[in-house]
């Protein structure tokens, strides 16, 4: 049975949009927001019907709002569509992201452009579209899913590292511009999280390097993560939920690491 008490459903009446929420971290965040009582817009590619079914199980209104966030016009239209379909937008989670791994001298120009467009410029376009109404209502939560690669670099991830560092700078700038309102803007910086994306990378590397998946996990994936454990999508979602709470109203402009100790070194 769905528990509708205000204590367990603190986001009742809030309208939330999560980009890239058909899978992985975005889906877990959408699920947690709905469980907390928010109406939620799902976005992303792939099996969106399954994502909508899962999130709608919490009994709030859940709508699929499509759009390729790598296209500026789609990103702006996404915010307008969410407002129309849910009646407003109080919580914006910029989560959609992609990765490509290659040395700079071999990095394809089109991959650079695509990663910058989705992982950085989309965050600008959705925030630009969402901020005026949040400012007018004097309440809002913007959460940008950056990465530990917004704080430190790794080789062969030039576009991703540049974009994620950019997202943190953009987050800080927006937080300062909105500091005297009750709209907060924060970045979450996960280390390796157990998502289909990472599981796929492990399988690919195992095949390419003739290693077992266990070996790739230990020697490649978890080499930088002192806990030697993947972060879970539910742990990232719990942090996003905290940022939406009244208790977090003093947290703005932060880049919060959830990285198993990666950046403690
Ligand atoms: P994922 O591949 O499981 O999910 C990505 C989501 O984005 C999917 O819903 C996909 O359909 C959607 N998407 C892709 N391109 C899109 C586009 N152009 N427009 C709209 N939606 C699009 O990935 P994930 O691992 O859950 O990653 C989510 C976010 O978390 C990304 O920004 C990623 O950089 C960040 N992140 C992930 C990890 C990790 O270890 N998995 C670590 C740090 C940061």
How is this structure best described in words?
The longest helix is centred in the middle third of the chain and has 29 residues, at 109-137. A 7-stranded parallel beta sheet has the order 3-2-1-4-5-6-7, sandwiched between helices. By secondary structure, it is an alpha/beta fold. 45% of the residues lie in helices and 12% in strands. The model has no long low-confidence stretch (mean pLDDT 96). The protein contains 8 helices and 7 strands; from the N terminus they run E-H-E-H-E-H-E-H-E-H-E-H-H-H-E. The structure holds nicotinamide-adenine-dinucleotide. Nicotinamide-adenine-dinucleotide is lined by residues 19-26, 43-46, 68-70, 95-98, 118, 145, 147, 190, 192-193, 195-198.
**What is the topology, as strand order, of the major beta sheet?**
3-2-1-4-5-6-7
Helical percentage: 40-55%
Number of strands: 7
Strand percentage lies at 5-15%
**Poorly predicted residue ranges:** none
- Which descriptor suits the 3D outline? globular
The structural class is: alpha/beta
* Small ligands present: nicotinamide-adenine-dinucleotide
Biggest β-sheet, characterized? 7 strands, parallel
**Gyration radius, rounded:** 18 Å
Give the topology string: H per helix, E per strand.
EHEHEHEHEHEHHHE
pLDDT average, as an integer? 96
Distance separating the two termini: 45 Å
**Contiguous helical run count:** 8
């Amino acid at each position: 049975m769905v528990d509708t008490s205000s204590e367990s459903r603190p986001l009742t009446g809030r309208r939330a949009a999560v980009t890239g929420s058909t899978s992985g971290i975005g889906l877990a965040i959408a699920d947690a927001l709905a469980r907390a009582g928010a109406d939620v817009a799902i976005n992303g590619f792939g099996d969106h019907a399954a994502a909508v079914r899962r999130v709608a199980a919490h009994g709030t209104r859940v709508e699929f709002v499509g759009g390729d966030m790598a296209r500026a016009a789609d990103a702006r239209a996404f915010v307008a569509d969410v407002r129309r379909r849910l009646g407003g937008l109080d919580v914006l989670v910029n989560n959609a992201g992609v990765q490509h791994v290659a040395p700079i001298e071999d990095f394809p120009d089109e991959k650079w452009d695509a990663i910058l467009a989705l992982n950085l410029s989309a965050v600008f376009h959705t925030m630009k579209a969402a901020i005026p109404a949040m400012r007018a209502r004097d309440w809002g939560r913007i959460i940008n899913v950056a990465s530990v690669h917004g704080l430190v670099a790794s080789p062969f991830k030039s576009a991703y590292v540049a974009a994620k560092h950019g997202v943190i700078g953009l987050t800080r700038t927006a937080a300062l511009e909105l500091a005297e309102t009750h709209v907060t803007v924060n970045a979450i910086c996960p280390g390796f999280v157990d998502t289909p994306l990472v599981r796929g990378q492990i399988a690919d590397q195992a095949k390419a390097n003739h290693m077992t998946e266990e070996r790739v996990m230990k020697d490649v994936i978890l080499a930088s993560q002192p806990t030697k454990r993947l972060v879970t999508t539910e742990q990232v979602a719990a942090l996003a939920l905290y940022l939406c709470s009244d208790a977090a109203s003093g947290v703005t402009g932060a880049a919060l690491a959830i990285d198993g100790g990666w950046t403690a070194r």
